[in-house]
Write a structure and sequence with these properties.
The chain is an alpha/beta fold. The protein has twelve helices and ten strands. The chain has an eight-stranded mixed β-sheet, with helices on both faces. It has a two-stranded antiparallel ribbon with strand order 1-5. Strand 9, helix 10 and strand 10 form a beta-alpha-beta unit.
């Protein structure tokens, strides 16, 4: 199996009457498309689609595998751990506002519009028997989309994500009380200076990945993220209970859980906490990967690669 490596870019522009934010995004897309096309010497080109909410880069043909990174991240965080399986098309997704992609013009909401954009992308391209790989917020988005399109989604590989984040840190948290904190959290992040925002994000970096090289890869995306987009997305993810949508999901789930010595609970106890989050889903398996922090694909790329290969081959129980 060969390592995934994008080979070219093709741009599909949005409709007319563009707002200024979309015009900027379009110009950026065209520049990127020209540069990558010039660099490519292979006739088989990947496709990059710019929209107000998502950027999608496609490689290969066959069973669709949609890969969604988490908060602030680009698909680059996956590429050292994932290999291209034959007869698959890989759809690398970057959310607008993250990793240098211009933020959406409308930031009243972030998570639900992002999910809806991916749903529209799936319908437009008539994708079926979809496999999702979602890290963190990407895992939550995968759940949301699978709940909307149960007939189109076959399986989901969830990397360190839960449907109600507050309850992971505080078991038994009341969803209504937690929801009341959304506006305050959003305002706190939105209103801090960019210097303070960068300092806050850097302070949390050691919890994201272990090695300096892995942290540098995470930071390369963080420092290009839009502060307002991060504020809206963070406040929604930390205060929204997405568990009610689980009853609408038919897909098989494989949940990958990172564990390290600093967590304070055993791997078995941590696995039970994650299982509680997915209560009601029959086709769910849970796998703990030791000596890893949030970015499992950077801390333990071989273990994550093995989990991905098993997932692709339908052997998530092994």
């Amino acid at each position: 199996m060969k390592k995934l490596k994008p080979k070219g870019v093709m741009h599909f522009p949005p409709i007319k009457n563009l707002p200024i934010g979309a015009i900027i995004a379009l110009i950026t897309a065209v520049i990127v498309a020209i540069l990558v096309a010039r660099a490519s010497t292979n006739a088989e080109a990947a496709t990059q689609i710019f929209a107000d909410r998502i950027v999608v880069e496609v490689e290969g043909e066959g069973t669709p595998v949609l890969i969604i990174p988490g908060l602030t991240s680009s698909p680059e965080v996956f590429k050292s751990a994932l290999t291209h399986h034959p007869h698959t098309s890989i759809h690398w997704i970057t959310l607008a506002g993250f990793a240098g992609v211009p933020a959406p013009t409308d930031l009243d909401e972030f998570v639900t519009p992002a999910a809806n954009a991916i749903v529209n992308y799936i319908k437009k391209n008539d994708l079926k028997q979809i496999k999702f790989v979602g890290h963190s917020m990407g895992g939550v988005l995968s759940l949301m989309i699978a709940a909307q399109l149960p007939e189109r989604v076959d399986s989901i590989l969830i990397i360190d994500a839960v449907p109600f984040l507050a309850a992971l840190f505080q078991p038994g948290a009341d969803p209504e009380l937690v929801k009341n904190n959304k506006a305050t959290m959003r305002a706190q992040i939105s209103n801090m200076s960019n210097t303070a925002f960068i300092a806050m994000m850097r302070q949390g970096l050691p919890r994201q990945a272990t090695s300096p090289a892995a942290q540098a890869r995470v930071w390369a995306d963080i420092e290009r993220a839009d502060q307002q987009a991060v504020a809206v997305a963070t406040s929604e993810l930390f205060t929204t209970d997405y568990r009610p949508i689980l009853k609408n999901i038919d897909a098989e789930l494989s949940v990958i859980i990172p564990h390290n010595a600093y967590i304070g609970v055993t791997p078995e106890q941590l696995r039970d906490r994650y299982k509680d989050q997915y209560n009601g889903i029959e086709n769910a398996e849970f796998h703990v990967i030791e000596n890893s922090r949030h970015f499992i694909m950077l801390d333990q790329p071989e273990a994550l690669s093995a989990a991905f290969n098993a997932f692709m081959e339908g052997n998530v129980n092994e």
